[in-house]
Each structure stands twice: as C-alpha cells, then as structure tokens.
Design a protein that fits this description.
heterodimer; A: Protocatechuate 3,4-Dioxygenase, subunit A; 2 helices; B: 169 residues; 11 strands; globular
C-alpha cells in the first residue's frame, strides 16, 4: 500500500477565523481552498534535513552558574505517524518563553525580564524510536497585548517534519492542570475535546526529575514511501 | 488497527526564533558545492487583508531538481526563508524540471501568527498545462512574474482582493 495522506478532519484540526484572535480575520484566506489529488510532488519530502538545519541545543536549562531560572523539567516527545509507527530521524524544533513569560525574540515587548542564562530554542533529531528528550525549564503564562485579558497558558512550540511534504506539523504543547488552558483561544479552537486533551502533555514524576511525556502524530499512513 | 488522529496544528505565533529563520534560503549550494541547473532567484512580498506587509512570516519550499527529480543526492530541494519588516522573502535555487505530467513548479508552505495551520500553495513559471494549476479559480495568480533572465517574483496575498489560491491539503 502506498503512503496515504487523509484529508484534515475539521473537528480535530482548527482553521479559519477564530473568535478572540483578531489577526485570523486579516490572514486566513476568504476563498475556499482548491482540492488536488496528492502526487509525487506532495508525497515526497526532504530526507536528512539536518544537512540544511543543523541541530542546536539539546539542553535549555544549563548547569551551575549558567542555570536558567525556573522549574527544571524534561520533555519527552515521541514522533509517530497515523499508524503509530515511529519516525526515526525526524527533525524537531522547539521554542518557548522563559520562567517570567519572555521570549528571546526582539518583537516580544511584554514587560517581563529576560534571563541571560536562558535561550529558548532547540533543534534535535529523533532517535531510532522516534524520541527526543529536552531538559529545560517550565515556561510561564504571558499576556497577549491589545486583547483585553487574553493570557496564553504556559506552552511549548513544536515544529516537526514527518515522512513527506504534506506531513509537516507545527503545533503547541500545553501543561496539565493549568487554569488558563480552559480559556485559551488557540487551544480551544480545536473543537474535539479528545483532540484538545492530546495537546496537553502527561506529567510523569520520577525520583530525580519532573518529566512530561508528549506524543506528536504527523499526517500519513501506509507503507513508508520510497523515493521515486 | 485503529489509525491515530494527527495532532492538531496550531499557529507558529509571533516569536519564531530568528536563528531558525536564517541560513536555509539558498538551495544552490550543497556541502560546499554548486548544484547543477539554471540558477534563479525567487522573491516576493506577503501581505494581509488590509495590505500590510507581514514581518517574520515563514515560507518553506519543496521542489524537484533541474531534471525533475526529487531524489538527486547532489540537490536538496527544500528551503526556508522568513519575511523582513517589508514583508519580502528571498530564495536562491535552480529552476526545477517537469516531473510526471506536471509543469515545473515550486511547492510553498506558509506559517505565521494568525494562521491556525499551515497554508499550501504552488508557484509556476508560466501559464502551463498542469492539472493542479488548472484546478484553481485564478490560476494567473500562481504564475510568477519574470523580472529578468534569472529572477522571478511571486507575491502572496493571504486574504482579500487578489487573494492567492491555496490548497485544501
């Protein structure tokens, strides 16, 4: 069987103009998207992406006098496809704000302090079981300017490549037990409650570390594609 | 076996790390060597409904090599660029060949704050006989403008008059 990309399910995927998120009304296309049957151009994709995007920083927390401020956590993410088959060698980009709610980005004008020991961006390659493990600190909530009270709950951004061009996945991971999760316009744009729940990591306390387990399912099912 | 549901996509947000947006927009060199084919530049401006240019929007491309192959070890057909404060992106690449009944084209994927998920579109070099190009309502908007012998302009409007056609997948 060939590798198959199934259409997106609107209950488990969000799109369009979202209430409470003003930029979506400026940016989401008004015209209905065109349909096409995926062919070789869409069902191939880059292999060995680290040739273009070199891995950086598998540890964002640091040690000793270089230790970032905040609760030390480990994030263990597993990359699988729709068959549940791991995607070994998947490239994974991760970024998040610091323990005060500040990003390293120059466009972040929130009034929160930077942490000189925290640079919140990592790029890693999944191992043979499709796993990455990142040692970092837990990000804080922060206000979205100009929205009259929308605070983003603590979250971690993920950018992942699956087996083909149409398997690209960019998403956000949330933390369990955060009251702001109930009100977040981005998390709650996912209508299906179970799909929403799967965006929240599972806390797995261990003796010497606070670990969060997370699974990222990239689009695609069937035999892993060969190149044409 | 029950199929797993793909993870819900979410917006890239406004704070994609600047270092991630750098250094991947030149497809003409691989491992220090020049790749075979006709070198071209592809540039354009990305705007939203009110015409405002979009800063730090991420564009990724996937294309065949000059012979229309996706598996050439001497060419890596993937690249990434981010727009500057004027909404302008820039790629250096080679002109792709035709492949399996498709006219030469470059696949584009867009990620940005205010986009709940990735957007897909395709750039063509001329008004070609191509099933994907013919499937959209305004195919002329997917044909790049040739600015000089080796430079193509592909502007993208996310929403509003002159809106770029996007694909469901």
């Amino acid at each position: 069987m060939d590798y198959v990309i199934h259409p997106r399910d609107p209950r488990t995927q969000s799109e369009g103009v979202v209430a409470g998120y003003a930029q979506t009304a400026q940016r989401w296309p008004a015209q209905p998207p065109a349909r096409r049957a995926p062919g070789v151009s869409e069902l191939t994709g880059p292999r060995g992406l680290e040739r273009r995007l070199a891995p950086v920083r598998g540890d964002l927390a640091g040690y000793g006098d270089k230790r970032a401020i905040g609760q030390l956590i480990h994030i263990r993410a597993r990359i699988v496809d729709e068959d549940g088959a791991p995607v070994p060698g998947a490239l994974v980009e991760i970024w998040h704000c610091n323990a005060a709610g500040k990003y390293i980005h120059p466009n972040d004008d929130n009034d929160a302090p930077a942490d000189p020991n925290f640079y919140g961006a990592a790029r890693m390659v999944a191992d043979g079981a499709g796993l990455i493990e990142l040692r970092t600190i837990k990000p804080a909530a922060y206000p979205v300017p100009g929205t009259g009270g929308w605070w983003r709950p603590p979250h971690v951004h993920f950018s992942v490549w699956g087996r083909v061009w149409l398997s690209r996945l960019v998403t956000q991971m949330f933390f369990p037990g955060e009251p702001l999760n109930e009100h977040d316009a981005i998390l709650n744009a996912v209508r299906d409650p179970e799909a929403r729940q799967r965006c929240i990591a599972r806390l797995v306390p261990e003796e010497n570390l606070l670990a969060y387990d997370y699974q990222l399912v990239v689009r695609g099912a069937g035999a892993a594609p060969g190149m044409p | 076996m029950k199929r797993l549901v793909p993870t819900a996509e979410m917006t890239l947000g406004p704070f994609f790390p600047p270092e991630f947006a750098e250094g991947a927009n030149d497809l003409t060199r691989l491992d220090g060597r020049q790749v075979p084919g006709e070198l071209i530049e592809v540039t354009g401006r990305v705007v939203q409904l009110d015409g405002r240019p979009l800063d730090n929007l991420v564009l990724e491309i996937w294309q065949a090599d000059a012979q229309g192959r996706y598996d050439n070890p001497a060419f890596f057909g993937w690249g990434r660029a981010a727009t500057d404060a004027q909404g302008v992106y820039y790629f250096k690449t080679v002109r792709p060949g035709a492949i399996q009944g498709r006219a030469p084209h470059i696949n584009f994927l867009l990620l940005y704050s205010g986009l709940m998920r990735q957007l897909h579109t395709v750039m063509y070099f001329d008004d070609a006989d191509d099933a994907v190009l013919k499937s959209v309502a305004a195919p002329e908007r997917l044909v790049a403008k040739r600015e000089d012998a080796h430079r193509y302009r592909f502007d993208i409007r996310l929403r509003g008059e002159g809106e770029t056609p996007f694909f469901e997948d």
